[in-house]
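In response to reviewer comment 3 from the previous cycle, which asked for concrete evidence that the modeling workflow produces usable outputs, we include below a single protein chain processed end to end. The sequence was submitted unchanged, and the resulting C-alpha cells are shown without manual editing.
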Amino acid sequence: MINVALAIQSDEFAQRRLAYVSLFLRERDGTPKRNNIAKKHSRAEQIHRAMLQVLDGERAGATQRALACALYGLRRVAENWTPHGDMLGRVRYLLKRGRSRPPRNLT
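The workflow returned the following C-alpha cells.
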C-alpha cells in the first residue's frame, strides 16, 4: 500500500470533497462501497470541530473574519459578513466556548 496525503480546502464544499476522497481511498484499497459515502457527524461533533478550528486559527494569529472564511468559505463570508452580524457572533461564540473549556491531557 502507498501512503497518500491530501489537502482539502475548508469551504462550503469541503464535506463533498471529503466524501469523494473517502470513496477514492476505499476503491483504491478494495473496500466495499457503502450507501452513504461519508459518515454524518452529530451536531455536537460539528460544533466541537469548528471550535478547535477557530482556536487553532486564533493561536496562529488569524482575524475573526479569516476564521469565518475557514469555517464558511470565502464566497459566503464576502456575501454575508457584517461588523455586528451573525457570522461574527458564531465565531465569537466558538472562541468563547473553546476558551472556557479546560485543556485535556491526551497522553
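The chain has two domains: 8-40, 43-100. We consider this sufficient to address the reviewer's concern, and the full set will be provided in the supplementary archive.
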